[in-house]
Write a structure and sequence with these properties.
By secondary structure, the chain is an all-beta fold. Helix content is 0%, strand content 33%. 30% of the residues are buried.
């Protein structure tokens, strides 16, 4: 799977190296690990793009400039995030649990603000992304990983994303 670094300010795209994406989180200490029965009914959603050092590029509806991540739904039906969670800590999958009617539309995208200000709206997460590089993932309501990505140290105002959606 190829991720690219997107230079939004100058419109240039260059390939990146050394980025682990979608390989799953580190092995849990519990040998049984997450349920991975390859069930075709498992939800599919991707952490499609992120910017962990957003200084000037993009602001939310109130003008707050914060780190962000974009989810992509390749499915034919809307994906409700109700009960799902997102976290930058594999050992704490419920770092930010979604409640309510937040939806990733079919074949669509949803931008989430990693602002550490969940009081700013349901699209604001309860943590920030690290510009020094880390991992982030989305989990189903039962705590099973849906998608997990890792990224290296970030350059200010540059996004990293999959070479194509999903």
């Amino acid at each position: 799977m190829l991720w690219i670094q997107v230079m939004l300010l100058v419109g240039c795209v260059s390939p990146s190296s050394g980025v682990l994406v979608g390989d799953g989180p580190p092995a849990p200490s519990d040998p049984s690990g997450p349920d991975d029965d390859d069930d075709d009914d498992d939800p599919v959603l991707y952490v499609n793009e992120l910017m962990a050092d957003n200084e000037t590029v993009l602001g939310d509806a109130q003008g707050l400039v914060a780190d962000w991540l974009e989810l992509y739904n390749p499915g034919t039906e809307d994906f409700s995030l109700d009960g799902c969670s997102v976290s930058d800590d594999w050992t704490e999958p419920d770092q930010h649990v979604f409640a309510g009617d937040l939806v990733v539309p079919a074949y669509g995208h949803l931008l989430l603000w990693a602002s550490d200000s969940p009081e700013s709206g349901q699209d604001h997460l309860a943590f920030r992304l690290s510009a020094d590089g880390e991992s982030v993932g989305i989990f189903d309501p039962d705590g099973r990983v849906i998608d997990w990505v890792s990224y290296p140290s970030q350059v200010p105002d540059q996004a990293r994303g999959r070479a194509w959606d999903g």
